[in-house]
Amino acid sequence: MRVVIIGCGEIGILCAGQLQHAGHEVVGVRRNSSVLAFMDSRSADVLEPASLVFLENEDFDVVIYQVAAAGFTEQAYHQAYVQGLANVLEKCKRTQPHFLFVSSTGVYHQNDDSWVDEASETLPLKFNGQIMLEGERLVAAIEGGVSVRFSGIYGPNRTRLIDRVKSGQTGSDNDGYTNRIHVEDCAGVLAHLVDLVGLVATKEGGELQQVYLASDCAPALRSEVFGFLAEELGVAQKVSGTVRATADISSNHGPSGKRIAGSKRCKNQRLLDAGYQFIYPDYRNGYRQVISQLAS
């Protein structure tokens, strides 16, 4: 199949490699495509419709929309996940490819340690989740549109938690459940769904759902992850009043009044049922790989 990856950054490049290895033809798209010299690429900006004309003139079986917002602001998110997305969808009207939209578990509002899946209610309190959900609605309105909700992405170039442990900034957090996925599994999930599109299109089997929750198999308490990382890194963990308490869902604030991330557990059963096998099924395997690579 012919696949185009809009916003071909780290995950897109990894995904392109997997797709090419499987025999698919891949085109990468980003504002400056010179960094994609190793593959077929196009320079385009999702906020400039004229630069997207190739989507009208070329036939693609699958579009992967994996654009990153320019910053953590409401305007930047709206430009990336609504305005830019709408521009791309408009250019795809003639060819009507299958469409994979990279979304986020930020669309969930749950903060009571409960399990969430694709059927769970989504009433996000923050602008990022609200805008992502708006993007999902745009994709749901087209035939063959699929949204993939990634949880916290980590990898050799995404070491926020490792850096916090190294600096000792772990003890003051309100404790709660966290969810994550290794960057290689992000690429693997997208490549797997492309293969599933092929099976469905050729009537060889498989069934494509409108939403997939892409998170690893081991939600864990934040304190548990910090403790594991401290042990693996061989550093002393500073503990200064970590609180284990469920915040008020309506306010999303902890006992101290500090705004905290929602504590929920993401269930990936639909993805597993679709045949995906995780490279790193839990944070222990994944972070050991990251730490090993950083040390080499």
Give the topology.
Layout: E1 2-6, H1 10-21, E2 25-30, E3 41-43, H2 54-57, E4 62-65, H3 74-91, E5 98-104, E6 115-116, H4 127-140, E7 145-150, E8 152-154, H5 160-167, E9 174-175, E10 177-178, E11 180-182, H6 183-201, E12 211-214, E13 220-221, H7 222-233, E14 243-244, E15 265-266, H8 269-273, H9 283-295
Parallel strand pairs: 1-2, 1-4, 2-3, 4-5, 5-7, 6-15, 7-12, 8-11, 9-14
Antiparallel strand pairs: 10-13
Helix pairs in contact: 1-6, 3-4, 5-7, 7-9
Structure description:
The protein has helices at 10-21, 54-57, 74-91, 127-140, 160-167, 183-201, 222-233, 269-273, 283-295; strands at 2-6, 25-30, 41-43, 62-65, 98-104, 115-116, 145-150, 152-154, 174-175, 177-178, 180-182, 211-214, 220-221, 243-244, 265-266. The protein starts with a strand and ends with a helix. With 296 residues, the protein is α/β, with parallel strands linked by helices. It is built from 9 helices and 15 strands. α1 (10-21) packs across α6 (183-201). It has one domain (2-295): NAD(P)-binding Rossmann-like Domain (Rossmann fold, 3-Layer(aba) Sandwich).
Cross-sheet strand order for the largest sheet = 3-2-1-4-5-7-12
Mean pLDDT: 90
As for the number of domains, it is 1
Classified in CATH, the superfamily is: NAD(P)-binding Rossmann-like Domain
Low-confidence parts, pLDDT < 50 over ≥5 residues?
A: 240-260
What is the level-2 CATH architecture name? 3-Layer(aba) Sandwich
- State which percent range the strand residues make up: 15-25%
The biggest sheet amounts to: 7 strands, parallel
> What's the total number of strands?
15
Q: What is the top-level CATH class?
A: Alpha Beta
